[in-house]
């Protein structure tokens, strides 16, 4: 492997930072503007009564290098729209008149840098403010980016960048190279300035530009559609060293001062563990008043003698003001005039021991807590054990008299916490699922809320699809549906007004699969033994140890979906399948109350189109063929079938005609001849090539590129053919077309119309004679031309309402603009150029188009198109009112509305814009020249999910969650030619598909998986911390090391700490009996043998192997050993442990061997211990090499033989490794990774029984994981380190710089941006025509919850893609102004080193290439001397090669 590609396959999911602010809408807009809510809907959404939630800000979340902005959607109780989909039953019951709150994604970005901290810069100006807030982000070492939401692009835009790195700012570091923390940001609550702490002691003050000032000029303020957001105008630096600060721990801006006041928590003089009894109160507070114009910062008050372990300060909101200081054992309140404190446990000590601190009525440790305010005098604290505590300030006027702490519920272990508006908070977690919780506060006595149960239960994430993961803690038992707990101030002298009771309800959760500590690669239960090639990959799954403590779980990840099959039938030559409904007794005007019943209606017929005939099956209890007894056209193939007139009729379209059927009887037959009698007789032969049905219209595209429109008459249930005149006259060839039904009482596209008086009356003329109101929405027709242009027509009257030139080139944004005729351009080109140009146009013409808006209160339409070269374009609609005079209120157009509309012909959808969104598919395939089968099949409800299925040679599922599309491939059946939904007695909300081998399968989606993730995931709760997992393939079992806390008395703990050498008890005579009874929390370890459940249900623990007291299991691996007595191979389970008994006791460990029994019925005898031996040193890694067992025991590496009863040492290597973290074997080569000393490369020779050191890395490196990388016949060594890098080394004894082979040479180095904890070597899927077959990639998992791979590349591909990558650094605008090259440079934490070769390409950056417009793609390919198709085929080969499971 001389060259490699780095590819992120699964983004980070562990939330590190969260903040809330008015990003996409201002405080004055009482409802978010996405989409804009018309007046009548607004009343329902945000009632004027006090019960609702009020205006809700956005939620900004960062996980690793991913930034996401969400809008919070509130659902009022009794809003009729929640009946439509019973599956989305809202979580948490009804509280304060709100029945559900959900998060909806606004934008998602993968940044070229890890977000260190986030703050939201408020606009200021109170609740009526029209301005918006901005997002301030800090990146290592000292980069600050400020982003605002820009309506015109429906995304974030960088408004300022502040960088304090590089040579001119070197003096800020004062000679230091590494800093413990990255920069942290805090902003003034009124938005007047912000502060960023960089390099430990440098405070950067960023001054905001006030709205009235000169800087925000008229042109600037209104260019973005009138929405002004907060921004910074200038900055300066305060060196805190000059103010005599030595170690700054935290800082915050205060509320309620005329000028911004910043309070800094810092240590005047350091202390350390050995000095704590003498020097304990070393922290202090300093409050600086910041004058940004004079750049002065006088200290206005300070407080000294705070505990040395104080770590966080919270600004108390107005009207109280002041700060809270959190430390491990106490909480202090300080303001200019008053101070008070609260002791949390027995370790709390006041500065002068004379006075006693007031104590809380329970004991708690508060180190590493997170906090937010849920009212102006109540703070919510989340502790390190995941408990929520409420801290109430009891105050009089502005003087705080005392603090009161009370317990609330247990919840997820949080990494950050943020209030979202006045009645929601968000718990961001790296260790479990992040939760959005609604709370309700009642003053006075305990007011029970209607509709909420009164159980005491945890606030936990549930198992997403209404299945809750049952998680418990010691205090509160299982998780139940509604959540409520009343909390009172316990002190007796509290006045009634100070008593508050809080109730909580979990409303939404974001899935997290991190932190991934270890994973195993095993077979799925539904694996198919006969599969080959890429479909064989979907036999596997990844089982990961993730989470911590009570959030610990096994995450079962599958890159591809494998449906659960109900039945399969052989059916060769199938071209298409459709299911249709039939209900005879249907009333004409279906009012919305009956729609709910329609949702559950079963399908009546299944229509199967073969090459030259059609089969019809009845989908009752059994699928029975009724082809002979029905009036369907069965003599030839069917092009499409569907329902018309509210499911009262079925339309079947075949090549030369169509039939309308009522059940099995035909009511009308149409035949498609020439549209006009005067047209040439040649067009008689044109047949139907594609069909789109939107009740009561049917759109047909003929093979001669003309279109026909069938218009249905609901009163008579008949259909007439028309051919739109506007299209007859134009000679443009149509390459694809579709109908879009804008459903609902409030059709979405009407909001985009610029003529408000017209948009109300569009739907009324469709009714025909019977005059019933038909508010089923509007129908539009989307046409794509061979020139690449796209037009949208209103079907009623067939007038153009939206047109885009060069749609097929895939620009980032589409907006309404007239189409230029481009035939003349073609003529201008020279004769030679015209041919190639024509070929390009053939390649980029749209062959299929589809537009869809799925059900949901706030969904917006999506537009999908497939080009002839296989590219899939995906656009999401949004509204933006431009400022070019197109608003409806424009006075120019008011006097003469009628004349204006008569001249323009239709109301234009001027405010409609489309934003291109990436779809992570690798399903490109060239379109064949024959008649195209439709590849996109929309579905509204398959197992409760909505989205579309993409058929073809690499099929996949695209599902919609929170207005975000998730693409999951389906590899298991190879190419799929036809797909349709099926809902009947035996197949509830399932589907049918036909493979290219001619097998029809009826299936359902696996229900245990959560699909709202980058990969489908199934979470198996363990209620303990998992550490390591391995796969025992013979029995399909997963042995897992787990640990869980156990409370033990000091007596028990002491008795287990026996000094081995002296053999005597520790001294306990100087401890009182009371001390001996005090309990301590000790982690206990066990190995669980778990088996996946057959039906995808819960996993079963087959056996557990407990460890001894104070013994930690460090490693468990399945090993194959050669029994030297019987000369047979035995597969055993090997475990290595260590006794952790403090620094006074010499380290020991045990090596354990277990055999896993044959009997299936008796689980007790499943595992039996066959060998155990105690060794000196901790046994941190075990592996088998050529039938021998290799054990890393402390600083020794020992190789053992196995004779059936015991292990005998045959060779050892005494190296300086301090502690081996990973051990990898290939043939007779050994790779060791050490916790500090980098990697060692050894070999084992059988004849002299020797372990020899071949080479090592001379540098020092804190290894996290290591693995061999195999590319054909070359062997490389990969290692990841504590600085979030990956390095690849190679062994080259003949090269002079390797010091005669002693030194490993660097082949590549790369910064991942996350701690890689495990590598797994997997064979790549061979693409046809590849020269190397023995090629392996490394799959890795990280502590952020992300997965990626390092895959070898051949030199030609590498050079091509590397050149492209260098071009893309400048060709693509990067979010937040971050540079991808600096992000991917090796981070060495200040150690001087020579940079290694640049031989890794970054697929994160290369993925932007496909999102560029076609013209730019061709231009870039041309610049680097290659073609676009060559680049895309290289990227696809890489994607296919790394689809492992």
Give an account of the 3D structure:
By secondary structure, the chain is mainly β. The protein has 16 helices and 86 strands. A five-stranded mixed sheet has the order 83-84-85-1-86. Strands 50-54-53-52-51 form a five-stranded antiparallel sheet, with no helix packed on it. The longest helix is centred in the last third of the chain and has 17 residues, at 1355-1371. About 12% of the residues have low confidence.
Summarize, please.
With 1445 residues, this protein is mainly beta. Helix content is 9%, strand content 42%. A five-stranded mixed β-sheet has the order 83-84-85-1-86. Strands 50-54-53-52-51 form a five-stranded antiparallel β-sheet, with no helix packed on it. A four-stranded antiparallel β-sheet has the order 2-3-4-5, with no helix packed on it.
């Amino acid at each position: 492997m001389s060259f490699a590609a780095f590819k992120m396959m699964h983004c980070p999911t562990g939330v590190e930072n969260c903040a809330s602010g008015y990003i996409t809408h201002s405080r004055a807009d009482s409802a978010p503007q996405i989409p804009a809510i018309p007046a009548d809907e607004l009343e329902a959404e945000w009632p004027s009564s006090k019960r609702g939630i009020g205006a809700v800000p956005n939620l900004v979340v960062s996980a690793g290098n991913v930034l996401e902005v969400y809008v919070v959607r509130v659902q009022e109780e009794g809003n009729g729209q929640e009946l439509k989909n019973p599956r989305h039953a809202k979580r948490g019951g009804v509280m304060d008149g709100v029945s559900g709150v959900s998060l909806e994604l606004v934008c998602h970005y993968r940044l070229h840098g890890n977000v260190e901290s986030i703050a939201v810069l408020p606009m200021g100006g109170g609740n009526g403010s029209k301005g918006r807030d901005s997002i301030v982000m800090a990146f290592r070492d000292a980069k600050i980016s400020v982003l605002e939401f820009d309506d015109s692009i429906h995304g974030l835009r960088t408004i300022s960048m502040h960088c304090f790195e590089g040579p001119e700012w070197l003096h800020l570091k004062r000679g230091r190279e590494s800093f413990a923390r990255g920069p942290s940001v805090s902003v003034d609550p009124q938005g007047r300035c912000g502060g960023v702490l960089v390099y430990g002691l440098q405070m950067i003050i960023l001054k905001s530009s006030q709205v009235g000032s000169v800087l925000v000029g008229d042109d600037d303020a209104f260019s973005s559609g009138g929405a002004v957001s907060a921004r910074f105008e200038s900055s300066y630096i305060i060196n805190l060293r000059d103010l005599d600060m030595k170690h700054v721990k935290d800082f915050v801006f205060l509320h309620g001062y005329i000028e911004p006041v910043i309070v800094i928590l810092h240590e005047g003089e350091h202390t350390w563990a050995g000095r704590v009894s003498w020097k304990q109160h070393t922290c202090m507070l300093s409050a600086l008043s910041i004058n940004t114009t004079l750049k002065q910062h006088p200290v206005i008050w300070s407080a000294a003698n705070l505990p040395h372990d104080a770590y966080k300060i919270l600004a108390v909101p107005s009207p109280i003001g002041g700060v809270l200081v959190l430390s491990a054992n106490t909480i202090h309140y300080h303001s200019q005039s008053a101070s008070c404190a609260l002791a949390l446990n027995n370790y709390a000590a006041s500065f002068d021991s004379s006075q006693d601190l007031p104590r809380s009525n329970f004991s708690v440790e508060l180190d590493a807590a997170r906090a937010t305010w849920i009212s102006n005098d109540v703070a919510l604290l989340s502790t390190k054990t995941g408990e929520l505590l409420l801290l109430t300030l009891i105050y009089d006027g502005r003087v705080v008299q005392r603090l009161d702490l009370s317990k609330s519920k247990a919840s997820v272990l949080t990494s950050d916490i943020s209030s979202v508006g006045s009645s929601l908070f968000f718990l961001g977690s790296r260790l479990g699922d992040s939760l959005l919780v609604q709370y309700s506060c009642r003053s006075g006595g305990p007011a029970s809320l209607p509709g909420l149960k009164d159980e005491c239960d945890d606030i936990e994430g549930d198992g997403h699809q209404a299945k809750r993961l049952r998680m418990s803690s010691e205090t509160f038992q299982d998780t139940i549906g509604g959540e409520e707990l009343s909390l009172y101030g316990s002190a007796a002298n509290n006045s009634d007004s100070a008593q508050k009771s809080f109730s909580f309800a979990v409303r939404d959760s974001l899935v997290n699969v991190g932190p991934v500590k270890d994973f195993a690669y095993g077979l799925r239960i539904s694996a198919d033994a006969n599969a080959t090639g890429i479909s064989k990959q979907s036999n596997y799954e990844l089982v990961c140890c993730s989470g911590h403590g009570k959030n610990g779980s096994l995450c079962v990840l599958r890159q591809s979906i494998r449906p659960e099959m109900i039945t399969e039938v052989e059916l060769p030559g199938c071209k298409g399948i459709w299911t249709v409904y039939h209900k005879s007794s249907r009333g004409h005007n279906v009012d919305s109350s009956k729609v709910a019943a329609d949702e559950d209606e079963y399908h009546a017929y299944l229509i199967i189109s073969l090459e030259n005939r059609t089969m019809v099956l009845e989908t009752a209890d059994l699928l029975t063929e009724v082809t002979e007894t029905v009036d369907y056209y069965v003599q030839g193939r069917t092009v499409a079938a569907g329902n018309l007139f509210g499911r009262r009729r079925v339309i079947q379209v075949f090549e030369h005609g169509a039939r309308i059927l009522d059940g099995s009887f035909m009511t009308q037959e149409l035949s498609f001849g020439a549209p006009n009698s005067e047209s040439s007789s040649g067009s008689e032969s044109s047949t139907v090539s594609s069909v789109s049905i939107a009740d009561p219209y049917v759109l047909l595209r003929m093979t001669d590129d003309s279109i026909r429109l069938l218009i249905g008459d609901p009163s008579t249930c008949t259909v007439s053919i028309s051919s739109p005149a506007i299209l007859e006259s134009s000679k443009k060839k149509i390459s694809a077309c579709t109908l879009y039904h804008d459903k609902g009482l409030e059709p979405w596209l009407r909001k985009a119309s610029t003529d408000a008086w017209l948009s109300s009356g569009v739907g009324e003329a469709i009714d025909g004679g019977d005059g019933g109101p038909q508010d089923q929405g509007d129908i539009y027709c989307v046409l794509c031309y061979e020139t690449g242009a796209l037009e949208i027509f209103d079907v009623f009257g067939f007038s153009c309402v939206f047109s885009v030139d060069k749609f097929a080139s895939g620009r980032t944004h589409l907006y309404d603009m007239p189409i230029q005729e481009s035939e003349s351009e073609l003529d201008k080109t020279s004769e030679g150029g015209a041919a190639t140009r024509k070929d390009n146009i053939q390649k980029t013409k749209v062959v299929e188009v589809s537009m869809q808006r799925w059900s949901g209160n706030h969904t917006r339409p999506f537009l999908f198109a497939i080009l002839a070269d296989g590219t899939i374009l995906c656009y999401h609609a949004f509204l933006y009112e431009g400022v070019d005079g197109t608003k409806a209120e424009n006075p120019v157009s008011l006097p003469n509305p009628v004349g204006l509309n008569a001249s323009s012909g239709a109301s234009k959808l001027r405010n409609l814009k489309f934003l291109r969104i990436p779809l992570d598919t690798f399903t490109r395939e060239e379109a064949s020249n024959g008649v195209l089968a439709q590849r996109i099949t929309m579905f509204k409800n398959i197992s409760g999910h909505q989205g579309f299925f993409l058929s073809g040679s690499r099929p996949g599922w695209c599902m919609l969650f929170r207005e975000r599309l998730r693409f999951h491939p389906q590899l298991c059946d190879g190419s799929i030619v036809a797909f349709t939904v099926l809902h009947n007695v035996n197949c509830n909300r399932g589907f049918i598909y036909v493979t290219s081998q001619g097998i029809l399968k009826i299936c359902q989606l696996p229900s245990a998986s959560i699909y709202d993730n980058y990969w489908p995931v199934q979470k198996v709760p363990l209620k303990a911390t998992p550490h390591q997992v391995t796969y025992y393939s013979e029995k399909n079992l997963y042995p897992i090391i787990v640990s869980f806390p156990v409370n033990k008395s000091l007596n028990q703990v002491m008795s287990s700490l026996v000094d081995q050498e002296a053999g005597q008890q520790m001294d306990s005579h100087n401890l009182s009996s009371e001390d001996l009874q005090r309990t301590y929390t000790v982690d206990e370890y066990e190995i669980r043998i778990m088996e996946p459940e057959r039906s995808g249900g819960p996993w079963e623990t087959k056996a557990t192997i407990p460890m001894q007291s104070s013994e930690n299991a460090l490693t468990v691996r399945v090993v194959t050993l050669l029994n030297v007595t019987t000369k047979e191979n035995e597969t055993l389970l090997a475990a290595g442990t260590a006794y952790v008994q403090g620094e006074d006791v010499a380290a020991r460990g045990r090596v354990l061997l277990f055999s896993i029994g044959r009997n299936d019925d008796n689980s007790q005898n499943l595992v039996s211990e066959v060998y155990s031996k105690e060794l000196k040193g901790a046994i941190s890694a075990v592996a088998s090499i050529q039938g021998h067992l290799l054990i890393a025991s402390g600083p020794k590496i020992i190789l053992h033989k196995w004779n059936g009863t015991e292990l005998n040492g045959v060779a050892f290597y005494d190296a300086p490794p301090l502690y081996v973290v990973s051990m990898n074997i290939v043939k007779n080569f050994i790779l060791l990774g050490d916790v500090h000393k980098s990697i060692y490369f050894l070999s084992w020779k059988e004849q002299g029984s020797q372990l020899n050191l071949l080479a090592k890395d001379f540098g020092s490196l804190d290894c996290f994981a290591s693995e061999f990388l195999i590319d054909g016949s070359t062997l490389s060594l990969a290692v990841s380190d504590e600085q979030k890098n990956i390095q690849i080394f190679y062994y080259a004894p003949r090269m002079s710089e390797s010091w005669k082979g002693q030194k490993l040479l660097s082949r590549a180095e790369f910064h991942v941006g996350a701690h890689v904890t495990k590598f797994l070597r997997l064979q790549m899927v061979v693409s046809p025509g590849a020269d190397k077959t023995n090629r392996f990639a490394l799959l890795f998992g990280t502590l952020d919850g992300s997965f990626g791979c390092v895959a070898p590349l051949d030199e030609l591909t590498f050079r091509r893609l590397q050149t492209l990558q260098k071009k893309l650094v400048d060709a693509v605008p990067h979010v937040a102004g971050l540079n991808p090259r600096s992000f991917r440079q090796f981070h060495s934490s200040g150690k001087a080193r020579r940079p290694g070769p640049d031989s890794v390409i970054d697929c994160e950056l290369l993925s932007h290439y496909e999102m560029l417009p076609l013209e730019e793609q061709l231009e870039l390919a041309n610049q680097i001397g290659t073609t676009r198709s060559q680049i895309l085929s290289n990227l696809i080969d890489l994607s296919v090669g790394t689809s492992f499971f």
